[in-house]
Give the backbone structure.
Amino acid sequence: MAANDAAITAAVQLLRAAQVVGVPTETVYGLAAKGLCAPAVDGIFAAKGRPADNPLILHVADKDQALELWKDVPPLAEKLMDAFWPGPFTVVLPAGDIVPANVRAGLPTVAVRCPAHPWMRKLIAACGFPLAAPSANTSGKPSPTTAQAVLDDMDGRIALVVDGGASRMGVESTVVAVQDDGVRLLRPGGVTYEQLCKIAGSVVLDDGVLQPLPADARPASPGMKYRHYAPQAQVTLYDGPPQAVQATICRDYDAGQGNTVILARGRPARYAPRRCYDAGADAGEYARRIFGLLRRADDDGYARILAEVPPCEGMGLAVRNRMLRAAGFRVVHANEIGNDKGEKQL
Ligand code: TXA
Ligand code: MG
């Protein structure tokens, strides 16, 4: 249903009645429910097929509403909220007693974000309570950045999707934990590492951001341990100097059995006549297109995706984090033209 006042009224009614509703945000679409109501939140886990040990983010209208959900909020956390809210930024702090255990997946902390999308803001304000909302994909699949992508996964399982247009950022929010010893980046997203450092001084990058976690690890962000964002197609990333990457991708494409598509960082014509999607010339554009292209590769019936990835600066860190997971950490390190150090399945 197109976002308008009538859609918001319908969504509020469903949410008050403990139903699950698809909602637009500036990052990706969410699957929302009444955030402090445990049975309503159970509905999200059921619709997504989400493991019960992966906690949810509570979405609030403003900082005051967030402060009611935590205990012990350090001044640095407030400074970060003042800098990045409303926006693609999520803060993890010790949870107050009013937060149900299923929202937190039993952890002593809760993640809270104040989104910027105008219709999502209207919806939270009209509800008067926080909304628990994970990304609106079936668990493990690429996140949805359009209302249609939500319907592709959730049709028949939820009562309504509010269509607020294509998501502006394309990847999920930045998640940080703020502790006595500073800021830990758990998931890179719309607020970059560099922007965080400007406010916080220094920021620790959590181990799970760019590396696979050992099977027995207890990750700071439980979502990091799951295979994620993955299309049906097998994804391989190519890293190294641009010319070497291009030559190695061409070599592997030509050696393949067909059914392969290349994900290029701009100028797809340089791969002609091979089949190629354009992920955009800069990392911000790649972020906006990434999940739509992973879904499209499945719709187009490709079995393999050979992908260029941007460097780790700016939005590049978030793109790399998502693509590494989509690829199950399969990376080819290209060094010389047409050469590589071998495929590394980490
Ligand atoms: O942009 C976003 O954040 C989107 C939109 C809908 O707001 N939401 C989203 O939610 O991406 P979800 O559930 O797909 O991802 C939340 C991530 C997961 O990796 C989860 O493990 C982590 O945040 N998380 C949630 N609560 C946490 C907590 N208490 N401690 C550590 N990590 C937490
Ligand atoms: Mg998600």
Summary: The chain is about 30% helix and 20% strand.
